Amino acid sequence: MKLYFHFAVVGFANTYLIGPPKGGDVILIDPGIMDTELLKLIEGNHYYIRSILITHKHESHVKGVRTLKKIYDADIYSFSPYILDFPSIPLKDGDVFSCASGIKVEVLEVPGHSPDSLVYHIGGMIFTGDVLAAGRVGGTKNSYSRAILLRAISDKLFPLPDSTLVLPGHGPPSTLKAEKMYNPDLQLLRK
Q1: Of all helices (H) and strands (E), which one includes residue 80?
Q2: Which of 61, 83, 85, 111 stands the most exposed, by the fewest C-beta atoms within 10 Å?
Q3: Which domain does 109 fall in, by range?
């Protein structure tokens, strides 16, 4: 399995591509935009987008879906039954499934930033959308939502190995160990 990272200046969002080392069917996570650089990455490696995983429905994570669906006959996976009027395979906490190239995906519901926030656990990596990033947790609308988010991070993400790679929707990667130790938003959970 090979992981590619694509940063889109529009929306300052990260998109991730996972698949076999040498061409074939791949997963695309959070296509906030479909630009020429992303298309070059896909086509230049002889990949075909077979599965699109959405962490939540904010525009910076889904805007590229419309263009992708014109090019690829990809299945969309998300919390919701529809993404931008395209049918989606609805997911819930604890779901485990295999998609493009047989890659196993575990679904973790981590609400708080948005009610539809999902984290995808693939191998030793978690794709966190806006739930958790290096040095911060996702923004929330009020203290109640923040409490829900912090509880969900503690209950769903903290049990994973400390070596788990955190791949957020915005910003650089991290590890769970680094976030537990240094993320100021998570300090209350350590006590």
Answers
A1: none
A2: 85
A3: 2-190
Question: Do 65 and 77 meet the contact criterion of CB atoms below 8 Å apart?
Answer: no
In angstroms, what CA-CA distances link 85 with 59, 70, 94?
13, 13, 25
Q: Is residue 116 pLDDT above 70, yes or no?
A: yes
SS3 string, 2-70, reads EEEEEEECHHHEEEEEEECCCCEEEEEECCCCCCHHHHHHHHHCCEEEEEEECCCCCHHHHCCHHHHHH
**DSSP state letter for 164:** P
- pLDDT tier for residue 32 given thresholds of 50, 70 and 90: confident
How many domains are contained in the chain?
A: 1
Residue type, 189: L
Identify the H or E element spanning 159. none
CATH number of the domain within which 140 lies:
3.60.15.10
